Amino acid sequence: MVATTMSLSLTVLFFFLLISTVSRAQRNVWCVANSDATAEQLQDTIDWCCSDSGGFRDCTPIQPGGVCYEPNTLRDHASFVMNLYYQNEGSTKAQCDFSGTGTEVHDDPSHGPCIFVHY
Fold first, then answer.
1. pLDDT greater than 60 at residue 54
2. With contact defined as beta carbons under 8 Å apart, do 45 and 81 qualify?
3. Which of 10, 25, 44, 75 has its CA 20 to 30 A from that of 50?
4. SMART domains recorded for this chain (predicted)?
């Protein structure tokens, strides 16, 4: 009886640890610009995400002097605003499409003081 109870307890514990690990891993997803996106597509994405149509994300971090201005590349700036949109709109593949220029990643793209949010 004790062995059965202990075995059941260990099984339940393993199950809960597995569930918490899986759900935690699913939350650690960011949206960034993919390597196939052109400069024009990236600029269009930045313009849209920072406009009223795109929900006017807070784009001050990618402006000169902002915490995400460096590195000063379209790909880095687009990735930052794409992720803001993605995280605030439900974090689904559809919110990371951006006409085929976005991709979901599991490695945190944050760098230095530039923090890519995830919820």
1. yes
2. yes
3. 25
4. X8 (SM00768)
For residue 18, tell me if it sits in a domain: no
What is the number of domains present in the chain?
1
- In the 3-class helix/strand/coil scheme, how is 79-112 assigned residue by residue? HHHHHHHHHHCCCCHHHHCCCCCEEEECCCCCEC
What is the rounded CA–CA span in Å between residue 84 and residue 116? 8
Report the distance separating Cα 64 and Cα 66, nearest Å: 5
**Within a domain: 15:** no
The answer to whether residue 58 scores a pLDDT higher than 60 is yes
Q: Which two tokens stand for residue 88?
A: 């605030």
The model's pLDDT over 94-115, given as tens digits with 9 standing for 90+, comes to 999 999 999 999 999 999 999 9
Structural domain contains residue 38: yes
Provide the whole-model pTM. Answer: 0.76
Contact 46, 62 (CB under 8 A): yes
Predicted confidence at residue 52, as pLDDT, reads 87
